[in-house]
Amino acid sequence: MSPLRLWQLLRFLLVGIGLVLVIWGLSVLFTYTYPFVFAFLLSLLTVPLVNLFERQTKMPRALGTLVSLLIVMSLVSGVIAIVVTQLIRYLTIAAEKLPDQIETFTAYVQRMFNQKIAPFVNDAYDSIQRLNPGQTTSLEGGITEIGVQLGAAIGVLSRGVAGILQDILSALPLVLLLFVVIVLAWFFITKDWPSYMRSIERLNKRKGFKEFELVMLNLRSALFGYVRAQLTLISITFGIVLVGMFILRVDNPFSFALLAAFFDLLPYLGVGTLLVPWAAYAAISGDWFSAIGLLVLYILVIVQRNLAEPKIVGSHIGLDPLAALISIFVGLQLFGVLGFILGPVLAVLLKALYNAQVFHYIWKFVLGPTQTPKER
After folding, report:
1. Between the CA atoms of 206, 211, 215 and 221, what dihedral angle is there, to the nearest 10 degrees?
2. Which residues contact 3 (CB under 8 A, 6 or more apart)?
3. pLDDT band at residue 323, thresholds of 50, 70 and 90?
4. Are the C-beta atoms of 312 and 271 separated by less than 8 Å?
5. pLDDT tens digit string along 301-318?
6. Which are the contacts of 330, defined by CB distance < 8 A and separation ≥ 6?
7. Residues 31, 34: Cα–Cα separation, whole Å
8. Which pLDDT score, from 0 to 100, does residue 143 have?
9. pTM passes above 0.85
10. DSSP state, 318?
């Protein structure tokens, strides 16, 4: 191997080790600073509103920041309050109807038992009676073992549920602390945003900083684009569910459509959290028209979401639909629920790094200063 190739290999290994160390360092850093990362992302969304207050009303920056934070938190709290209120209302209505539904369901189960299960049990009992003593002992031992295993499984499940509840209760103080830290950091970052921008402008003259600024601008554009994309998808879900509620002749269709739009924010579960239990309840109640209609509506929402999400997210954050789909899937595999957000953001970060020619500079470093066009 020539000395030139050897140096290129060494520089390539150096770049690879450097990237691994940077990713590891960022992951460790994120573990300790994630509240401030979330506060920074919230500030990116809030700064335009604060600037608007400052320009139009001549409001002091600190007061404008406080008002903006209160407006955003009030809107979010209002939506959550409306959703919770509607859930409580419909759960109350369901609870009032529950005794009649339980009676109907019990009668249905009793009828099914008498017609289907009882004859089968009688036949099985007759078959057991015809077994010899050894076979009967083996069968009884197997039934006993199944009972022991079932009891153990129920015990493990009960301890698991109790452990989860204990973990939730023990995590409440930490959640409250994180909320306070994020809100305070959100306030201070938004309030002092102009001073941070002036510092960046002073650094802008340094070599390589323009590329960093380009990356940050791309990330900010991607964040706003992702929020717009999710609002678009939720609006589509709201419209589909609203039409479905009118077709199914449901009372207060707007309330149910709003609930569905809220649950559409929940990864993995989504609108199924609302529509699937509702369909099961309707089936138990004997209302097969509503049960089938709700299941069809759920399928329509899921198909629409999966078909439209890559296209809409990709168009709003500047990615090809296939690239957006890949980024969402990879993000889910790597980060779980947060991958819905982190996957596309990381994809945009890679695209921003490419546009800023960061990979070009890395490749030039690997090739080395002595590489000539003919040798390439």
Report:
1. 90
2. none
3. confident
4. no
5. 888 887 887 778 777 766
6. 339, 343
7. 6
8. 65
9. no
10. T
Q: Write the DSSP assignment of 4-64 as a string of letters.
A: HHHHHHHHHHHHHHHHHHHHHHHHHHHHHHHHHHHHHHHHHHHHHHHHHHHHHH---HHHH
* Chain CA centroid to CA 55, Å: 36
Give residue for tokens 């209120």: 85
Distance from C-alpha of 161 to C-alpha of 140, rounded to nearest angstrom? 31
| Residue appearing with tokens 């050894």 | 134
Tell me which amino acid residue 133 is: P
The reported pLDDT for the residue numbered 362 is 77
> Which tokens belong to 40?
């920074």
Measuring CA to CA, which residue among 136, 115, 118 is closest to residue 127? 136
Q: What DSSP assignment string belongs to 255-300?
A: HHHHHHHHHTTSTTTTTHHHHHHHHHHHHHTT-HHHHHHHHHHHHH
Q: Token match 């209505």: residue?
A: 93
What would the two tokens of residue 349 be? 């970060």
Least-confidence region, from 206-210, 273-277, 282-286, 316-320: 206-210
User: What is the predicted pLDDT for the residue at 372?
Assistant: 47
- Residue 12 structure tokens: 């390539």
